[in-house]
Amino acid sequence: MFDATTILAYKGKNKAVIGGDGQVTFGNSVLKGNATKIRTLHNGKILAGFAGSTADAFNLFDMFEDFLETKKGDILKSVVEFSKAWRKDKVLRRLEAMMIVLNNEHIFILTGNGDVVEPEDGEIASIGSGGNFAISAARALKQHANLDEEELVRESLKIAADLCIYTNHNIKTLTLIGEDK
Predict the structure, then answer these.
(1) Which of helix, strand or coil describes residue 44?
(2) Residue with more model confidence, 96 or 24
(3) Residues of the chain with pLDDT > 90: what percent?
(4) Is 64 helix (H, G, I), strand (E, B) or coil?
(5) Which value, in Å, is the radius of gyration of the alpha carbons in the chain?
(6) What is the mean pLDDT of the chain?
(7) Do 180 and 16 form a contact (C-beta atoms < 8 A)?
(8) Could you tell me how many helices (H) and strands (E) the chain has, helices first?
(9) Which long-range contacts (CB under 8 A, 24 or more apart) does 107-114 make?
(10) Which of 35, 89, 125, 130 is the most core-located residue (most Cβ within 10 A)?
């Protein structure tokens, strides 16, 4: 579990959305409240979010982007090759970090242990210290509220921020519109 952030992704019927809070902590202090921990990759066709050290995030985002380029944007092939490379690298595999990557077809959680996890429901994934709060809220809102994908992510992250001391209300989201929409 990483104390510093909450990232939530939802691959819905019409949109793929990723969101994250802005809090960066060091021990028991808040260093920054408006960090951006999500980004678009591969010409805006892939969304990614990161939990862990900020400096490590830039390295891993760039490394994953290289795999996307090599694999011509094929997210499935890219996550497998990226995870192998992350696990084999003696320095990178020690990072206490996790990533979520998604497009309109797939959503994955990636770790330095070589894990490539597609959520059981194939729709909702979360990482970070507030991840369990966010995913619980997202599942409940998906079942009982009539929210679009971005609203669901935003509201779920607000609930996580109310509960997790390492998550704040400075929420940012990125969205991919379904290709046939």
Answers:
(1) coil
(2) 24
(3) 70
(4) helix
(5) 15
(6) 91
(7) no
(8) 4, 11
(9) 107/9, 107/11, 107/16, 108/75, 108/79, 110/64, 110/79, 110/82, 110/83, 110/86, 111/83, 111/86, 112/86, 112/87, 113/87, 114/83, 114/84, 114/86, 114/87
(10) 130
Residues acting as catalytic residues: 5
Backbone angles phi, psi at 104, to 5 degrees: -75, -10
Quick count: other Cβ atoms within 10 Å of Cβ 13?
Answer: 10
CB–CB of 6/156 below 8 Å? no
pLDDT tens for each residue of 76-99: 999 999 998 888 887 777 777 899
Cβ(166)–Cβ(5) below 8 Å: yes
Task: At 176, list the tokens.
Answer: 């991919």
Query: Between 180 and 112, where is the model more confident?
Result: 112
